[in-house]
Amino acid sequence: MLLLLRYALILFPAVSTAYMLPLEQSGQLAFYTLVLLAVAEISRTWLPGRAQNLAAAAEMLFVTWLSLQTEGMMFACHYSTLTAYMLKERSGLRWFLLALQAMLLNVSLNAHPDMELKLTANLLLATGALLLYGWAETGDRKRELEQVYDELRSKAYELDAARRRLVEYAGKVEQLAQTEERTRISHEIHDDLGHKLIRLKMMLEAIIRISPGQPEKGMEMTRIVRDQLTEAMETLRRTVRRMKPPAEEGQSFSLKRLIEDFAADPEVQIRCEIAGMPRPLYPSLEIVLYRNAQEAVTNALRHGQATEVLIEMSFEESNVAMTVSNNGTLPDSAAMGKGLGLSGMEERTRLVGGELRIHTDGRFAVTTLVPTPGAQ
């Protein structure tokens, strides 16, 4: 559209001037008009940015000379040149070119005695310059906003990729810790219990050999084997206890423990329903689910005055969904915002690559959806 406007501001003054000139001068005017169009096209397509400014200055001089030669409407071609530099140069050079063009425009109008025409032409030049300046600034702001948007989108992709790597890294760290602990325990069993069992086997073979001839000695060695077997069994029990954490530690982040904690209040009924095949989760995911359930139940009792809370666990192939709903008072949708509790739940869920959803259809419900990479 801008290109059509530029060429139209050359052709319309030329056509208007051609009606005012004698027929023998029309061919010369057509030639000069074609030269002016060629200069505009060459400046637009072939010249670099700085050279385009020089071409615009040369075009102003040519239009001024042509206006003085024809004494028609060719001075209006200055408005075409205005579009050539006001949209491309953000430095102070465009204001210098504008001042030069204003001076040359008035020189072009010297042959016209009408002061009203001169005033109108100058006002049109100033108005056009302001409109093009605003257009250029708007385009620059749009490009800057698009660049900022692209950068933010790129950062969002990087952050999402970093979050996924963090979740994978946490899973690998937990697997590595489990592997190291298993390796340590296997070494302990091999070095301690294994040696004891080998020694006991050798003693039993010795008992078999000496028992027929020395029954007292065989009985004494049998008692020693019994005592050492007792000691080996105790070593095995200690090792197994170290492999299995205490019951209270394993239940510290369980929903059963949560329900038992709130069961002391006779006015509150908390139920838990499970769908799908339950499976062990990473400790990081268990903590997130436990903390979110704890926060949701606390909010239901404190803010919604609920008397019934339902915790629904759904185990799927690639994720686990936990929905905590209550029969309490629904919050005002217009005034409902994410306080510290919901914000903390959302932040915890996001850190493990999950999603937090809030439902207010009949019952207030909060759903925590977490992925389960590497679930067994």
TrEMBL record:
GO cellular component, one term: membrane
Signal transduction histidine kinase subgroup 3 dimerisation and phosphoacceptor domain mapped to chain residues: 181-247
EC number, UniProt record: 2.7.13.3
Pfam families per UniProt: HATPase_c (PF02518), HisKA_3 (PF07730)
UniProt key word Repressor: no
Residues in coiled coil: 142-179
Keywords: ATP-binding, Coiled coil, Kinase, Nucleotide-binding, Phosphoprotein, Transferase, Two-component regulatory system
CDD domains per the UniProt record, alphabetical: HATPase_UhpB-NarQ-NarX-like
Catalytic activity: ATP + protein L-histidine = ADP + protein N-phospho-L-histidine
Chain ranges of the Histidine kinase/HSP90-like ATPase domain: 289-361
GO molecular function: ATP binding; phosphorelay sensor kinase activity; protein dimerization activity
Gene3D superfamilies per record: 1.20.5.1930, Histidine kinase-like ATPase, C-terminal domain
Name the record gives this protein: histidine kinase
Organism the protein comes from: Paenibacillus elgii
